[in-house]
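Researcher: Here's the sequence for the chain we discussed earlier.
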Amino acid sequence: MVQEYQSPVRVYKHPFELIMAAYVRRFPKSHLIPVFVDSEILSETESKDGSTLVTERRCVIDIEAPRLLKRIAGVDYLYFSQKNTLNRRDRTLRIEVRNETFSNRVLVHECCNYTVHPENEDWTCFEQTASLDIKSFFGFESTAEKIAMKQYASSIKKGKEMIEYYLRELEEEGVTYIPRWSPPVVSGTAAARLQLLPCCTGRAIPVDSAKTGLDIKEPAGPTDLVAGSPDDKLDADYIRRYLGDLTPLQESCLIRLRQWLQETHKGKIPKDQHVLRFLRARDFNMDKAREFLCQSLTWRKQHKVDFLLDTWERPQLILDYYTGGWHHHDRDGRPLYILRLGQMDTKGLVRALGMEALLRQVLSINEEGLRRCEENTRVFGRPISCWTCLVDLEGLNMRHLWRPGVKALLRIIEVVEANYPETLGRLLILRAPRVFPVLWTLVSPLIDENTRKKFLVYAGNDYQDPGGLVDYIDKEVIPDFLGGDSMGDIPEGGTVPKSLYRTAEELESEENRLLTDSIYKSASIFKGAPYEMLIEITEASSVITWDFDVSKGDVIFNIYHSKRAPQPPKKDTLGAHGLTSPGAVNAQLIDRSWVLGQDYSMVEKALTCREGESVQGSHVTRWPGFYILQWRFHSSPACSASSLPRVDDVLASLQVSSHKCKIMYYTEVLGSHDFRGSMTSLESSHSGFSQLSAATTSSSQSHASSTVSR
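Model: Thanks. This is the structure I predict for it:
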């Protein structure tokens, strides 16, 4: 694999001619670069008017490599050829380097350019590119590649230090100005070669063309500045000021990925800070970061995320009940976001708003965070690329572990992780209750390892002790509800009124563009025609979980088990005569010929659920086989005693439209190994609900926990 390097534009705030005088002092060797053992000039060619000088050298390098590897390779030093083309008229120097040693096994090509700054002719720019292609190296290709890249990265840093060192040396000698080259009066005459001298001050020194081996040029015209303009190339000082301290190889990855985007990506190019986040998320692996970033850019374009802050208006429900907001900054200058999760009615928000609105709220928070990072970078004068999130869990209980809500949270985390990597600098979790490990077990697998390392969890009032919140946030910024001095404006939330809940039809018909399938499904239950759902269990001790709301009428909820697979429903005899029966809508899984206790069994006691109730529960399966979840119309004890429809019930349901119930439900099956960690908490969760009703059958191997909230 070919390794490539591209440097940022390094700017020296000195004229080109002075930089050249400093550059030539590194030859034939310099104590500043010990690995550069020696060099000799092989040839020099100067143009007739003296404007161009081409110098070819042979350089000797002592690579820091294991002695054993050097013995296997049979060399102590590596030899490189260097060709310097100095153009005094254009004020440019081009340096090309290729390897001579092992040239049939390894290909090294380096190209460096010194040019005049496009906006200030008294400044000099430096750029560097290189490539390394190890075809074979005695079976040590990977080792040789790592050594070469490490050595090269080290020499890059020393290169800048070397120029600055010799600039100071020139200044100490009184040389602060060297005149530009000018064409001779008469080509080839001695007077022409003395043209430089009248321009020299007493502090200036002539540059010996035989000694420089470099190229110099005058200010380029506007049409020559396109390739080197700030819009196209990154300046090293800009990187340090706005992006932070990067290694040479990290700078190279950023520049090459940015160049690739400019050449290939149609549409808006992300800002440098955002590109850098994707590189960091993939440990500066160019190929992986490029794929990661392109997927996110496609997603942003498809859903017009770039315009979200300008076009999306938060629903009033979010303004009233979403308990989060931006609040000043932490001690490091990072924007601070506070979320009072324990006070938030997550279920109410999901039921009243739907998933797309909630996801857009989270995305708008992230987009605002990116803007605030840019603003704080300008305010504090140092790179700030991420924010701090403080999550207060005071009030968190098992109601927050409502499975559809948790599943919605997991999907939101997936979207955020895929499109906003490396934006979370620190997550402070305060007042974590006992149920927090359950929630953490569910969400942590979807969170990147690097992100998980940024989590700090404080139980109870531990955050008030030394090493707590004040280590990260100034006391005058800490909200008053956490014992600080700031009168925070974070909404306190509250319970979303059920009158604001959306119907099952509304939730199902909503076009979720950011999250595909709907969490809930709806079903109608007719008198004499229950709604039944089949779940096949292949592993004993698997856990069936459910959550449903009764939006109309009263229902009876049952769970049955059968070793036999239910047969496909028989053809509806009423439908054959042009009539539609409830059974045509709700396929009956329990065959009329089945006998309770022989062909199938009831594994939990029947649970009566009234209109408006919300029911959550779970059942640990005792046997493999087929489990049937059944919702039946509830009218009177006589009607509810049997699970099989009667003829008069069916006929009555055709004539009386009120004999109909409606539910909105969600079910999920978890493997026993996935659920074991949270089983105890779920079984003891009753105190976390305002009102509840449970029907439970216990054994050493089977247990169900159901809760009802009115």
